[in-house]
């Protein structure tokens, strides 16, 4: 694989590139360093928000497009000159694919009593910090949303009814590692990955081979959309019920498994 430089790596964050308990990416540092040296874009595809993604990019020394809120929006930073096509006065070009945040919260508000739901908009940042394990600053960033609403559901027996109800309003529900997420019906990690790949190839004239790594059912559409899908085991060692042709199953959970697979794929120690 190392013979060709034209790769893009897409990755989920929580429990994939970031450790489930500590949120550390340190075990993946060797593979991250390789991608940086080889100028292979490492694209976050996450339920996290734009401020959270930017902070993580800064921490890891990355400059690449990123996809936030389960495919709701693609942010292309000005430093990505190969992909950037907007007004160069702006810091980011933003491609919006999801529903507006106000529309998400208004719908959740109308259903919270009937389905016993609590969204991030109903929680103080201290509660978000407690439920996520984030520090207060991280919880504030997690509440700074663009086009999706995470929530908890006290009675999961009502899940199917909830999905049918929001579908009639043009929305759907996806399940992440810690929360459910209310998103636009046509919004997914996979559709955002496809949109960014099309944009990258159109703007560069290069065909990119794509790799994606994820750990949960929420990542299925992303894994389905790439050439090389990689399934990371959950923190308890089990695998999500995802079956795809050429699916690679990482040997370890979290960033350790992430690192092992990419090092093997690219033939680096």
UniProtKB/TrEMBL annotation:
InterPro entries: HAD-like_sf, HAD-SF-IIB-MPGP, HAD-SF_hydro_IIB, HAD_sf. Pfam families: Hydrolase_3. One of its GO terms (molecular function) is hydrolase activity. Keywords: Hydrolase, Magnesium, Metal-binding. The keyword NADP does not apply. This is HAD-IIB family hydrolase.
């Amino acid at each position: 694989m190392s013979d060709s430089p034209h790769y893009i790596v897409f990755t989920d964050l929580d429990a994939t590139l970031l450790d489930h308990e500590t949120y550390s990416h340190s075990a993946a540092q060797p593979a991250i360093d390789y991608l940086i040296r080889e100028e292979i874009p490492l694209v976050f595809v996450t339920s996290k928000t734009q401020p959270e993604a930017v902070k993580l990019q800064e921490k890891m020394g990355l400059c690449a497009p990123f996809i936030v809120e389960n495919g709701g929006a693609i942010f292309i930073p000005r430093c990505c000159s190969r992909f950037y096509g907007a007004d160069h006065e702006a810091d980011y070009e933003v491609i919006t694919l999801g529903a507006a945040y106000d529309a998400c919260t208004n719908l959740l508000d109308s259903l919270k009593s009937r389905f016993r739901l609590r969204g991030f908009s109903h929680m103080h940042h201290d509660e978000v910090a407690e439920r996520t394990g984030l520090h207060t600053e991280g919880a504030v960033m997690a509440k700074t949303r663009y086009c999706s609403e995470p929530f908890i559901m006290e009675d999961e027996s009502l899940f199917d009814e909830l999905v049918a109800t929001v579908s009639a309003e043009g929305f759907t529900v996806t399940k992440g590692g810690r929360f459910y997420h209310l998103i636009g019906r046509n919004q997914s990690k996979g559709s955002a990955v496809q949109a960014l790949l099309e944009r990258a190839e159109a703007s560069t004239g290069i065909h990119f081979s794509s790799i994606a790594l994820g750990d949960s059912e929420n990542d299925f559409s992303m894994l389905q959309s790439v050439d090389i899908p990689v399934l990371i085991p959950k923190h308890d060692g089990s695998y999500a019920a995802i079956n795809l042709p050429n699916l690679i199953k990482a040997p370890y959970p979290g960033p350790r498994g992430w690192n092992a697979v990419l090092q093997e794929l690219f033939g680096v120690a």
